[in-house]
Specification:
The protein is α+β, with helices and mostly antiparallel strands. It is built from three helices and eight strands, in the order αββαβαβββββ. The chain is elongated and about 75 Å long.
Length: about 170
């Protein structure tokens, strides 16, 4: 059964709901603009974090030191959305904050957490596949095609730093 006794208020309620929706949408847009403006110059916002891609290359340790000097660390990838963003953001092979320096085969992020999702290229990580020319491969990098590979930490690549925006501290 349809109640037509209150037909006059239905369009008014629809207009009120529309106005409320538009108000919330505008607030969301304002918040997104606010977030974009809160990352330092040269940094890019994604999902409430700030990201920096180096324009120079260096070893994994040099990249990490540069990130730390910026109040950040090498990127720790938490989910597929972030992985997809990093893949687009990384123009070249780029260091991420993942390594197995401490124990071969036990990959850990720079924040101390274990790797609980992965995007390794087929047959990786392989620690150089036993070929002496590759050496020991204890550090991870991302390819632009969104997969990871292990590489000697001494190799010279760009890196991606990640930090929380200033307003979150």
């Amino acid at each position: 059964d349809v109640d037509f006794s209150n037909r006059k208020s239905q369009p008014i309620n629809s207009v009120k709901r529309w106005r409320k929706f538009m108000s919330m949408w505008k607030m969301g847009n304002l918040f997104a603009k606010f977030l974009r403006k809160t990352c330092p110059t040269g940094w890019t916002n994604f999902s409430c974090s700030c990201y920096f891609r180096s324009t120079v290359t260096g070893s994994w340790d040099e990249g990490r030191q540069d990130c730390l000097s910026r109040g950040a660390d090498l990127v720790v990838i938490k989910d597929k959305d972030e992985q997809d963003f990093i893949s687009r953001f990384a123009k070249e092979k780029t260091w991420i904050g993942l390594n197995d320096k401490e124990t071969e085969g036990s990959w850990k992020w720079v924040d101390g957490t274990s790797m609980n999702l992965s995007f390794w290229i087929k047959d990786q990580p392989d620690n150089g596949g036993g070929d002496p020319k590759w050496g020991k491969e204890d550090c991870a990098h991302v390819y632009a095609q969104s997969q990871w590979n292990d590489l000697s930490c001494a190799a010279s690549l760009q890196w991606i730093c990640k930090k929380l925006p200033p307003w979150s501290a």
